Amino acid sequence: MGILSDIFHKIFPSSHPAVAQAAPPQTSSPGSMQSTSAGQAAPATPGAPPPAAPMDQVDVEAILSNMAASSGQQLNWRSSIVDLLKVLHLDSSLQSRKELAQELNYSGDTNDSATMNIWLHRQVMNKLAANGGKVPADLRD
What we know:
By secondary structure, the protein is mainly alpha-helical. The chain contains six helices and four strands; from the N terminus they run H-H-E-E-E-H-H-H-H-E. The protein is globular.
């Protein structure tokens, strides 16, 4: 499980599709695949909602603001990836942020932590928004 997955698990309810998508893939047993009309294999997921089902929006700003308020620290999760990770009780070390950068395909210099941190924060907010999070426009692209 990656760091982005950990972030999703801390913000989205366990029943939210973003959490299910972030879960590690399960190995399939021989009987778990079914054939589609085109003859292609598709996972057998009885009772699963159709892929185009709308996601419930989760108010990311409210959740993070409440977590920051109850942390007992002055944490600026709105602009700092370090503070965002601290609010979520996740490892905010440089090594952890470098792992997150790799996970998100950062192509810049990971030794330039200031630039990387700004990029990481924006990408995490974009990913939250793309996966059903209600994220303020000024925090995403």
